[in-house]
Each structure stands twice: as structure tokens, then as C-alpha cells.
From TrEMBL:
EC top class, as a word: transferase
Protein purpose: Catalyzes the insertion of molybdate into adenylated molybdopterin with the concomitant release of AMP.
Keyword Transferase attached: yes
One GO cellular component term noted in the UniProt record for this chain: cytosol
Record lineage: Bacteria, Pseudomonadati, Bacteroidota, Flavobacteriia, Flavobacteriales
Protein's recorded name: Molybdopterin molybdenumtransferase
Similarity remark: Belongs to the MoeA family.
Cofactor(s) demanded: Mg(2+)
UniProt record, GO biological process: Mo-molybdopterin cofactor biosynthetic process
Organism in which the protein naturally occurs: Robiginitalea biformata (strain ATCC BAA-864 / DSM 15991 / KCTC 12146 / HTCC2501)
Catalytic activity: adenylyl-molybdopterin + molybdate = Mo-molybdopterin + AMP + H(+)
Amino acid sequence: MISFGKAYEAVMAERWTLAAETVRLDDACGRYLAQLVVADRPLPPYDRATMDGIAICHRDFRDGHREYRIQGMARAGDPRHRLSGAGNCIEIATGAVLPEGADTVVRYEDLLSSAGAFTIQSDPSEGQSIHPAGSDADAGSVLLEPGTRIGPSEIAVLASVGVGKPKVYSLPAVTLVSTGDELVDVDQKPEPHQIRKSNTRALRAALTEFGIVPEEIHLADDPQIIRMELEKVLSEPGILLLSGGVSKGKFDYLPEVLEALGVRKCFHRVAQRPGKPFWFGVGAGGENLVFSFPGNPVSTFLSFHLYFRDWLLKSFGFDNNGQQARLIAPAENTSGLTQFRLATVENREGTLWAAEVPMNSSGDFLSLARAEGFLCIEPTKSGYAKGATVKWIPFKFK
Ligand SMILES: Nc1nc2c(c(=O)[nH]1)N[C@H]1C(S)=C(S)[C@@H](COP(=O)(O)OP(=O)(O)OC[C@H]3O[C@@H](n4cnc5c(N)ncnc54)[C@H](O)[C@@H]3O)O[C@H]1N2
Ligand code: MOO
């Protein structure tokens, strides 16, 4: 059995080379950029009016002009207009190009309208209500770095500079494997001695965060079938996420079958609770990583977030190991195992404060729905005072 720290390091040390592919912009949300994105022109590309009103030359105002004759109307989408002659103005819409010869915009609220003219009733400053060309970014400047997670705001940036098919990191092929003769599908009515599969459903849902659509198989508790099915999955590169069948039961065949199929065991059993029987290995040629999670629902769920999610983020270039929370109440852990305890958090002035959520056992998946993440409580003789800072593994995001 190895320590949690060593197990975590061993998983994170596994490198996975991510290829790149292009996707449609509308399919890019949640993916990770594999290219540099630069401004194709200054942003904004022209001096842009930020108010509806009139465009004037401020010198005219300084020279004492208060009434301005309307020379025309600049709408958003019009080519640049030209303002000429002292005491003239051009009406302008928000988003329109500032006319040549104008340097200031005065909003309608500060104007008195009369036939063919506007009178300024405020004291405008030179250059007001203009978003100057290039003030957000110069042409050629870097807007997004490779490794950036593409969210709605990054989509806006990509769209604005004309990247309609961004290059993103390819997603690893993932196969979800459920094991056990007691399991039936969600749409089946379980016999009294059966339960519905929930682990694979939860992991499939968790994978949507990354846009990963996994393959799925179920293995009956039969070593021959397990071997045959896993051999097929291992013949293609990819990640296997298994749940169940790795502890010490008479029907827990996975560790021996995986090794017989040439998957090198990196470790089996971690000094942690839940999740102790976790088995992790690397397939021949390094083309498969096998995360064989303990079957108890909380163990599978925790192990996925603790190991697989951080490993995947690391493959995209992120170190996700730094999240912390402070304990609302004192805690103890003299078990000698790293304990992961369910909790909810409250953000108080930028600091997360965590309150533990009771859990009956690692079979109590209902408790997951009441919590927002796991606290990592390392074993210690001295205990944790109220306010102590510990590692925090969130799985719900407000
Ligand atoms: N003698 C020992 N027994 C056990 C030990 C041990 O160290 N010595 N460890 C215990 C711990 S800790 C855990 S966790 C479990 C893990 O066992 P397995 O990984 O072999 O998992 P299973 O026995 O197949 O299943 C455990 C439990 O979870 C349910 N399960 C499994 N898959 C699903 C699924 N897809 N959806 C919903 N529920 C699932 C399964 O029905 C079992 O109730 O071993 C302890 N035993
Ligand atoms: O991993 Mo087991 O979950 O400690 O119950």
C-alpha cells in the first residue's frame, strides 16, 4: 500500500501526448486551445462611438460654439463620414465609426434639439464617449495562449478575430467499464438482489465538462469474459476508467486479468479512505492508462476527481493541485489513512470555509448530492484547529 501523496505523484507523472485538431467554433466551448490567437487588426478596429448623440470637433466648443448644425447621420456599419466646417456636427449611433474631423461625442441626454441643429447643454471633455482604435489591443498582439480553456468569453475573442475553426487539443478516447453481476441498467427494474448502475452514469456526466463522450462496456463477474472484453479495449489507445472489482473479494478479478493482459501495475491500494483499493496501471507501449476505481459509489466518484480529473487537466497544461479551504470546525484524523470528507463551502471575503457533510459510508451516494467537494484530511496526532487550511477537491461549481 502506498501513501496518497505517492499515488497522486505516480498518476500525475504519466505523460499523455495530446494531438491537435480543428473544430467548429460552435463546438469549441470546453476545449483547450492548441494555438496562439493574435489580433488580426487593432481592437477596436476604429474609433468607436460609445453613446448615441452627436460627433463634434472639441475645438469648436472651446471657441464658444454651443449650437451645432446637423450635417448627416453616422450609423453603425457606415463607412467613415467626414465632418467639415466650424459649428457643424454629425449625428452618431453607438458603435459607429467616429467621423473624420470629429474628436468628441456628446450624448442626446446633454443636447437640446431644434430644427436642423442641437445645442450642447453640458461641458464635454475632449475625446469623451469614444472607444479609441487599438485601445484594447494592437494588431498582432497575443490575445489567447495555447492551453487556455475555451469558455463563452474566449469564443467571443475567437469570433472577433475571425478564428472560425480553432485548433484545440484532441481528447483522449475514454472507455467506462462497470463490473459486477448485481448491476442493471437505469431503465431496468432491479430484482430485490440487484441495484441500478449509477457510477458509470455519474462518470459519463462528469466527462461532459471536457466534451469527452466515452465508450461504455459492462463486465460480468467472469474472468474469461473480463479478459476477452478488456483485451479488445486495450487493443486501441485510450484511457480506461473502471469501477468495482478491485478489492479482495473472490470475484474481484480485475487486477490479475489486467496484469495478465500486459498492463503494468503502478500501484494497488492507497493509504486513503475512501478509495483504498484503487489500482492504477499503464498498458503496453504506454498507449493505455488504466484507472481501476473501487466500486463503492463515493470511492469511484472521489477517485475520478482526485486522480483522473487532475491528470487530464495536467495533460492540458494545468496544475490543479492547489485548491484549499479552511475548516469551520475542528477535525481529527488519527486513522493513519488520508481521509477525504464531504463538505460544503462558503466564500467569506475570498476565503473558502468548509463545513463537513455527514456520510454513512462510501456506499452512500446520496451524500454526494448534498455536498460540493471533498476535504483532504491528512492523518495527524495533533488534530486540526478551527480555521486550519486543508486541500479542497471541489466537484460542484456555483
Ligand atoms: N476484505 C476486504 N474487503 C473489502 C476491502 C478490503 O480492503 N478488504 N475494501 C473495501 C473497500 S474500501 C471498497 S471501496 C470496496 C471496493 O470493492 P470493489 O472495487 O471490488 O467493488 P465492488 O465489490 O465491485 O463494489 C463495491 C460496491 O459498489 C457497488 N457498485 C459497483 N459498481 C457500481 C456501479 N457502476 N454503480 C453503482 N454501484 C456500484 C457494488 O454493488 C458494491 O456494493 O471493497 C471493500 N471490501
Ligand atoms: O474505498 Mo472504500 O470506499 O474506503 O469504502
